[in-house]
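Justification of resources, computational component.

The compute hours requested in this renewal are based largely on the per-chain cost of generating structure records like the one below. Each record pairs the submitted sequence with a full structure-token output. That output is archived, and it is also reused by downstream analysis tasks.
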Amino acid sequence: MDRIKEQFTLNKNVTDSQLKEAGFVKGIYRTNLHKDLIFLKITIEDNEWWTYQILNNDKHNTLYIPYYNRLTGKNELVDKFDKKLYKIFTHLTAQGIFERVNNA
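The structure output for this chain reads:
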């Protein structure tokens, strides 16, 4: 299950100025998660749909597969990402971009 989407949902009343103030550019938020090698990308479209991805910072911005394939065993970097993601989404919630899901 997607732990972030279980805990956070998009605030449907978010404005373009709120997005811009929070660091979104044309509906995209990007921040490094690990040095300059791996980053988080959040995409919001028309205040209706949103997604996030953990990507390698290579010329193709490929998915960071260990984050999505957790069957390979314990990965301390992935555990750090989970904590960082929670902090980032909590911060964006305080800015009115997201809302906490009930019972999360």
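The beta strands are 8-10, 28-34, 38-45, 49-56, 98-100. Residues 76-94 form the longest helix (19 residues).
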